[in-house]
């Protein structure tokens, strides 16, 4: 396993070790908490030397994502290198029937992925759940709120960026993580998220559980790449939000 230079994963090198905990866990452990049979990260010398200081071997974490997203046979011919992250992301989007433009940025495609999961969850919500969700997200007129209306609300939030977009990303990813790897985000302890997380966890969890059956049949790689890509999307939003906050504080 070797890291392929990848502009879309370079930001991992700027994250704190504790921020990378969830990503490392989903790469090395399955939903039942057992070590994955196909993972190579825990066998790496840098991992053995520095764990749990993940920042010191972030390139090996990135390489693990690249290799899980690649054909094993072809990886051997590439000198142990996998494929670039964008290829892994697009493969996950194809599997989950996400509508996206291949020429778009990775951040935009990740947003499309999260939005698709959110749309699927909203369609499964009862009118009461939709009303509670609308109230929790600050919608003033919640009378007769529909799934389509909430899709519009969330699309607007993602487009605006900033804290609200970051908050929504964490809420969605936290719910997905509970369903896919058996635990929520460890860096999503913000008290402001708690109420909305509780409302979203159920419906999103149901959607992902249904999807999981198909993924299980499809092959082991997706059991890793889907939660890993979703973790990377959350980390990217955290990184972008913190970078913007720093720029504002210095301006």
Can you walk through the features of this model?
The protein is an all-alpha fold. It has one domain. It is built from 11 helices and no strands. The radius of gyration is 18 Å and the shape is globular. The protein starts with 20 loop residues before the first helix and ends with a helix.
SSE order and pairing:
Blueprint: H1 21-28, H2 45-50, H3 58-68, H4 72-77, H5 85-95, H6 106-124, H7 127-136, H8 147-160, H9 162-181, H10 194-218, H11 220-250
Summarize, please:
The protein is mainly alpha-helical and 251 residues long. The protein is 64% helix and 0% strand. It has one domain.
Structure keywords:
64% helix; 251 residues; mainly alpha; globular
Question: From N to C, what is the helix and strand string?
Answer: HHHHHHHHHHH
Tell me how many strands there are.
0
Largest sheet: none
Helix content: 55-70%
Strand content: under 5%
Kindly report the average pLDDT value.
Answer: 84
Number of structurally distinct domains:
1
Count of DSSP helices?
Answer: 11
Q: Unreliable segments (pLDDT under 50, ≥5 consecutive)?
A: 72-78
What's the shape? Answer: globular
Distance between the first and last residues' Cα: 42 Å
Radius of gyration: 18 Å
Helix-strand makeup class: mainly alpha
């Amino acid at each position: 396993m070797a890291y392929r230079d990848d502009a879309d994963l370079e930001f991992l090198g700027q994250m704190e070790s504790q921020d990378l905990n969830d990503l490392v866990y989903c790469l090395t452990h399955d939903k039942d908490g057992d070590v994955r049979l196909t993972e190579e990260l825990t066998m790496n010398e840098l991992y053995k030397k520095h764990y749990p200081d993940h920042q010191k071997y972030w390139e090996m974490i990135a390489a693990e994502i690249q290799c899980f997203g690649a054909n094993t046979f072809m990886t051997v011919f590439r000198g142990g290198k996998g494929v670039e992250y964008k290829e892994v992301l697009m493969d996950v989007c194809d599997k989950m029937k996400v509508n996206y433009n291949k020429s778009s940025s990775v951040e935009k495609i990740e947003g499309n992925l999260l939005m698709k999961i959110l749309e699927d969850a909203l369609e499964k919500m009862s009118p009461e759940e939709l009303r509670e969700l609308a109230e929790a997200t600050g919608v003033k007129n919640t009378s007769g709120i529909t799934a389509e209306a909430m899709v519009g609300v969330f699309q607007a939030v993602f487009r605006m960026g900033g804290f609200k977009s970051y908050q929504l990303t964490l809420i969605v990813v936290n719910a997905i993580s509970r369903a896919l790897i058996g635990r929520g985000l460890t860096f999503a302890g913000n008290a402001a998220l708690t109420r909305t997380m509780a409302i979203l966890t159920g419906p999103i969890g149901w959607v992902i559980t249904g999807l999981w059956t198909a993924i299980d049949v499809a092959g082991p790689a997706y059991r890793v790449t889907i939660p890993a890509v979703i973790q990377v999307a959350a980390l990217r939003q955290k990184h972008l939000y913190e970078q913007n906050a720093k720029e504002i504080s210095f301006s």
